[in-house]
Amino acid sequence: MKKLIIPFILIFCANIIYAQKAEKSYFSNGLNNYEINVASSGTNNLFDLGWNHLHAITKNKKFRIGYGIRFTGINGSGNFFTAPAKLTSEDANLDTINVSSYTIGSLNLSIHLNYKFNQKWQVEFNIDAVGLSFGSSATADYTTSKRLNTNPVVNNKQNASPTPFNLLLVGDNDLGSLNSQIKIKYYLNSQWAFNFGGTFIFSELTTSNKLFKDNNRFRQKTFMPMIGITYSPFNN
After folding, report:
1. How many domains does the chain fold into?
2. Per residue in 24-53, pLDDT tens?
3. Does residue 236 form part of some domain?
4. Domain that holds residue 39
5. Type and span of the H or E element at 29
6. Is the dihedral of CA 177, 164, 131, 107 positive or negative?
């Protein structure tokens, strides 16, 4: 995980320094944010950092929409289930792989919806839209042994790696690993805020072999409590 995180922390810090030297006209009105969040479910741990820019779309400037870029790193263990939507509609099509340890790093463009109650409190929902994932491969246990008897080519030990392409298509139609958050922001002062809420992440692995129904994509859905900080350098 450290090998995945360190380069993005360096880029993240460089971006903050650049933004502080950039034209204030673009980053004005407190709409430019840098964030770091951590989350854990006990068996899975998540770290994300990103930048986002919000645009007010109402006259009172309370409701805002925006875009950003986010790096998410997650590691953990557990079961991954058949991912493609064309198969998940029927329980009989569901297969499972179990991974004792995995690490996925994702870099995605994100969509943000934000409502500002006052100078202290905000609520936000955001979700990854498109990007790439990477990470080391892991050995997974394919547990549907009753099907192995009819397909001797398939081994119950499978090599699984992060699905490389991520795309938001809604629900089980999604591809790859995508992070979404619902959180409350409490501004300690004009620039620094404390975040608390939850993150819901789709993590996806692809096996090197096609398995039952020619499927090689498996997904884990995890909800985790989350805390973090937001830095808004041009907030007034």
Report:
1. 1
2. 444 444 479 999 999 999 999 999 999 999
3. no
4. 2-20+33-231
5. none
6. positive
